[in-house]
Fold:
Amino acid sequence: MRIIILWCILVQLLYSCQPESRQADFVVLSTNEVAIEGNTENGVVFSAEILLSKDEPILDNGFVYALTSKPTLGTDVKVAAEEEGASKFSSKMMDALAPDTTYHVRSYAKTQSFLTYGNEVTFRSNGSKAPIIEKIEPSIAFWGDTILVTGKNFDRSGKNNSVWFGGFEASKRWGTKDTIYAIVPFELNTKKSEVTVKLYGKNSTNSKPFEIHSPVVTSISRTEGQYPDEIIVCGDYFSASAKNPLTMNLIHDGDSYCGGTVLNRKQLSLRVPFIGLEKEGFLSLEIIQQGERLLIKDFFRTNKQSIILLSDSATLSQPIYFRTINLDMTHVPLSVRINNYVLADYMLSESEVEFSFPALGGAFDDEVFDVDLFFSGKLMCSISVKQSGPIIKEIYNQKVDANGMLDFYVVGVDLSQQCMLHGKVVMVLLV
Structure:
């Protein structure tokens, strides 16, 4: 026995010639073979002995193990000694181990000035007990939230555990041998799901299903207004992910108006729909997420909106005016058609629309013509206007004089005044 001890001391002293092992002058360790109680599922026992120690007290001692040779503190798994500071120390290790795998173990001892590792031993694992889930907190959460799984027999490093929500794996997780943190995957497409921890081919499933939180509305920015006012709905658990889309509808008298934007998890943005002129009433809000429906009835009162033609007759040289009530035309996607001709030029203010007839020859040769107003491509207003000025039937022999004026011959009705043609005032020559 003395020969073995002297040999170990000699080996450590020889290593002390190297800078990285200078600590051997103070502490000499011997790591014993790993003891296995029949099966690694029952745990393994690490043990070691301090063969030589100088004046500095041992502050920390234990074991490190890894899948590669020469495991070290800081990068590999640490197992603290049960007898801290004793010359002989051990530890029963119950960590989850991969089956049919060789592990490398070294003892260590740390003083105020030095860190010493003992010799390396190996053991062969035949697996460990299945993971056990004891609790999940919270059991109701949202996509992207972090949940805590507590239990037993998890991977101490946290690297080899996998957490599944139904058929979807959490891409981010970390933890220790008895706790796992996991982020709820955005791919999860069911309201309720089982949470399963998988490790080295063995599984554990939580007895209580995990649940995605339902949308919650806490406040609404306004409860009265008109098209196209914006409504901000505040709350929580609104999905902005295309993988689990939230849909919202505003309902008026049985008609549903789709639209709205999820600004973030806590805010929705909607526009008051155009329900028609001279109409008023109440809107209800419908929110649908993962097949679950939230209905807020009659939360918003719509004001009556009107468009008034200031004159029921017009001439080619004078503009036509529409006056609006509770309708801001500067925020309306408007298009104007006269006898199905799309009018490109018109002027808008908050409460007024102004436009003139385009001079296109026979396009407006009727005494009464239709003016149609479209909002977002949908016909909202159609008004008949009587043409009180000249009615052009035909234009021919057009020529431009030296002053840039256009002379032409026309055939029509009441051609005794000037008219507008292609943006230039020209003299109408009677025939």
